[in-house]
């Protein structure tokens, strides 16, 4: 059984947002078309409290995009983004959320970031998504959303490690590409057994 996983398609990750992914909003029509065709649609939503540890503003001696060491390893410091209850944390206004059966919020613990839909960045604290999918007999995931080289990549790789077949829909995702991170992300996903696919091919497979 298949599910579409829409990753963090929120205002702050789209042009004009606090942590904008170039052309992030251009994927919305494709994502909507995909969501209309899948029986199971799940969304993730970055949902940070103010003063989150991953914000550069929480570290006066550092700037956005600096990398620091924290308890669970390296942490990129980001501009304040997707703060709970703000417009930036809301989904893109053109995104059709009606088909979504689950909205999974992540990054809400003040002291730990969360890129993956499956685990916090410590790699051990689960979000509960694995159990949700298994209870419903879902074994194949099609991923789209933002950003390819961070939350999409981490979700795809963790999905493979959890035993799911994972496809990333290439024309329904966009990346930040920080210091070559986009090419590295595609390499990591390939090594993990993630399959890259077009939206047209994904719809054909999902309908089969």
TrEMBL record:
It comes from the Bacteria. Its EC number is 3.5.1.19. The gene is pncA. Belongs to the isochorismatase family. Gene3D superfamilies: Isochorismatase-like (3.40.50.850). It is an enzyme of class 3 (hydrolase). This is Nicotinamidase. One of its GO terms (biological process) is pyridine nucleotide biosynthetic process. Pathway: Cofactor biosynthesis; nicotinate biosynthesis; nicotinate from nicotinamide: step 1/1. Pfam families: Isochorismatase. Keywords: Hydrolase, Metal-binding, Pyridine nucleotide biosynthesis. Residues 3-200 form the Isochorismatase-like domain. GO terms for molecular function: metal ion binding; nicotinamidase activity. InterPro entries: Isochorismatase-like_dom, Isochorismatase-like_sf, Isochorismatase_Nicotinamidase.
């Amino acid at each position: 059984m298949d599910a579409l996983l829409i990753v963090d398609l929120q205002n702050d990750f789209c042009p004009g947002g606090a942590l904008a992914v170039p052309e992030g909003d251009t994927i919305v029509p494709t994502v909507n078309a995909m969501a209309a065709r899948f029986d199971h649609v799940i969304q993730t939503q970055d949902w940070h409290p103010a003063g989150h540890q991953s914000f550069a503003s929480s570290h006066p001696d550092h700037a956005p995009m600096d990398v620091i060491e924290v308890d669970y390893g390296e942490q990129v410091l980001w501009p304040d983004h997707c703060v709970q209850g703000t417009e930036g944390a809301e989904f893109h206004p053109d995104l059709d959320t009606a088909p979504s059966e689950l909205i999974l919020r992540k990054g809400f613990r003040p002291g730990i970031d969360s890129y993956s839909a499956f685990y916090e960045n410590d790699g051990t604290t689960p979000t509960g998504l694995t159990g949700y999918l298994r209870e419903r007999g879902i074994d194949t995931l099609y991923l789209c959303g933002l950003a390819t080289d961070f939350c999409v990549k981490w979700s795809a790789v963790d999905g493979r490690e959890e035993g799911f077949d994972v496809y990333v829909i290439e024309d329904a995702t966009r990346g930040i590409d920080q210091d070559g991170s986009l090419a590295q992300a595609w390499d990591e996903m390939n090594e993990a057994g993630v399959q890259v696919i077009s939206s047209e091919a994904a719809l054909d497979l999902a309908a089969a």
